Structure formats: structure tokens, C-alpha cells
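Duplicate of #3305? Posting structure anyway:
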């Protein structure tokens, strides 16, 4: 039973990464008519409405402390993560951001080591991380070997995976509360959108509904809202509950690989030998981290019956 559950977790993680790895295509198309903050807001509004329709039952928390987990998850995993990533793209190269954000599994493992009793750092995970990181760097450089450092943008880019690590740990704690995954994700989206409202006033945001007359814009927004947001956040949060924060985060290594394949398939971008080498290293590193990294099980305390 446990093995079948773990298999389901791995399959859901692969599905999620397949979708997340191709979102850049939709985002790139939408940037012609929308600003980054507009894309972010519209996709999560669509996702939130979809989750309300799918699971309309109210989610009741037992205490304000429990509610704080959802508040923090919405702030870190939805609002701040995507805002910081988008702002970083203004100050530094997209390749820099892509490489830096892909180290999220390391930050997640570090956060889990200190805040989750059952998930600890180990040598096997670190070995896989270093190998995968080398591959991700090669993919990011794409054969140019011209890495330009931009302190402000790069520092912001480092903040993004740290925020995702906090989100992953929070979702691991939320999953332990045994709430319905869709209902829990819906609550996280609500707080994410709530914290996003002040940002709309600071950035160049406009409704501009006339832009929705374009079939291309509508289809790409629906893909981001229904697929990359509603579906993928539910599946990702479910996987975190099954496999744990650290094992689930390892799949993030594969995002650049999917992106490279999608670039070649949909945008007809050339794949260099450096990219191929980077892809192989990334897959090898993720395999080592996932195959050999083992979580430390919780100690079972025998409770004697009062009878």
C-alpha cells in the first residue's frame, strides 16, 4: 500500500514538472500584451475560481496558529515567490535566474533539516545536488560561457528559492493536518491573492479586458491558471504530503530539462552539446538525490493501554 502511494506521488510530481517546465512558453507569449504582475494576478484568479468550483466545501481550521500556516504559505509560495522572481528578471539575465531558482531543492533540504524532524540532510542528497547544479549551470549558459553577474537581480533570485523552501516546509506541516488537498490549496491561493493586492497598486496593473478578445491570450491564461496554478499546486501539495518536502523538491531539478525540450519542440531553438551534457548531469544528479536520499522516520512511541 505504501509503495503504491509512493508511486502515485512520483507520477504526480512528474506530471507537475512537465507542466511547470513549459509555462515559460505561455508566459513569453503573454508578455507581448501583459505585464508580469498582470499575468501573475490573472493566472491565480483563474486558479482560485477553478478550485472554488471543484471543491466548494468550507475548510475549517482549529486555531489561529493553524490558520497562520495557510497565511504564511500564501504569502511565501504565491505572492512573494513569484514577485521576487519577476523583479529579479528586470535586473539580471533570465539564464541567471533560471540557474539560481533551480537550487530550490537545496534550500528546501536545509529548511527541512531544521524544521522537520523526519527529513534530514545527508551526503547522498548533497552529492546529487552538486551534480545536478553543474548540469543546470551548463543548461543556463547554453554554450555561451558568458556569465554576467548582476548583484541586485542575482540576490533577489537567491531569495526566490529560499521562499519556495519555506513554502514547501509549510505545506508539509499543513498536509499533516489532514485537510482536503484541494481545499487547502484554495485557502493558500486566497491569502496569496490577498497579499498580491497591494502589489497591484505599486506596479503597472490594468484590467484591459479587451486583451481577452485574443484567443491566444485567453488560451495561454487558461493554461497558466487552470494547469500551472490550480492543477499543479494541488498535485504538488499532494506530493509533498506523500513523499515529503525534500524528496518532492528534487523534481525541480528536472524543470530546466523540460524547458530545453520544450524550447526545441515549440520554439525551434537549437540544442548545443553543452546543453545535452547539462541535461544528462541534471538527470543524473536528480536520480542520485531521489534514489539514495532517505528520510529519517519518526520514532514510534509505544503507548500502554490504560486497561
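Output from current build:
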Amino acid at each position: 500500500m505504501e509503495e503504491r502511494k509512493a508511486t502515485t506521488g512520483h507520477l504526480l510530481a512528474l506530471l507537475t514538472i512537465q507542466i511547470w517546465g513549459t509555462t515559460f512558453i505561455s508566459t513569453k507569449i503573454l508578455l507581448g500584451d501583459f505585464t508580469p504582475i498582470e499575468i501573475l494576478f490573472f493566472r491565480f484568479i483563474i486558479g482560485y475560481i477553478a478550485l472554488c468550483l471543484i471543491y466548494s466545501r468550507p475548510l475549517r481550521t482549529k486555531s489561529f496558529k493553524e490558520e497562520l500556516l495557510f497565511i504564511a504559505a500564501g504569502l511565501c509560495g504565491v505572492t512573494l515567490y513569484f514577485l521576487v522572481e519577476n523583479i529579479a528578471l528586470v535586473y539580471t539575465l533570465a539564464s541567471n535566474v533560471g540557474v539560481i531558482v533551480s537550487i530550490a531543492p537545496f534550500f528546501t533540504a536545509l529548511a527541512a533539516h531544521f524544521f522537520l524532524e523526519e527529513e534530514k540532510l545527508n551526503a547522498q542528497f548533497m552529492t546529487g545536488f552538486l551534480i545536478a547544479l553543474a548540469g543546470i549551470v551548463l543548461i543556463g549558459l547554453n554554450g555561451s560561457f558568458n556569465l554576467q553577474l548582476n548583484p541586485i537581480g542575482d540576490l533577489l533570485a537567491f531569495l526566490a528559492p529560499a521562499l519556495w523552501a519555506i513554502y514547501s516546509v509549510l505545506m508539509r506541516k499543513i498536509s499533516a493536518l489532514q485537510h482536503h488537498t484541494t481545499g487547502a490549496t484554495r485557502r493558500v491561493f486566497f491569502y496569496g491573492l490577498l497579499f498580491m493586492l497591494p502589489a497591484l497598486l505599486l506596479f503597472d496593473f490594468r484590467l484591459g479586458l479587451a486583451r481577452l478578445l485574443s484567443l491566444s491570450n485567453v488560451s495561454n491564461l487558461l493554461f497558466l491558471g487552470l494547469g500551472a496554478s490550480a492543477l499543479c499546486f494541488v498535485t504538488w501539495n499532494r506530493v509533498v504530503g506523500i513523499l515529503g518536502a525534500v524528496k518532492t523538491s528534487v523534481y525541480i531539478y528536472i524543470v530546466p530539462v523540460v524547458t530545453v525540450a520544450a524550447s526545441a519542440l515549440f520554439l525551434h531553438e537549437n540544442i548545443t552539446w553543452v546543453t545535452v551534457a547539462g541535461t544528462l548531469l541534471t538527470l543524473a544528479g536528480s536520480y542520485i538525490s531521489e534514489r539514495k536520499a532517505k528520510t529519517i522516520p519518526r520514532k514510534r512511541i509505544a503507548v500502554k493501554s490504560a486497561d
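Confirmed duplicate; merging threads. The longest helix spans residues 215-243. The chain has one domain: 2-292.
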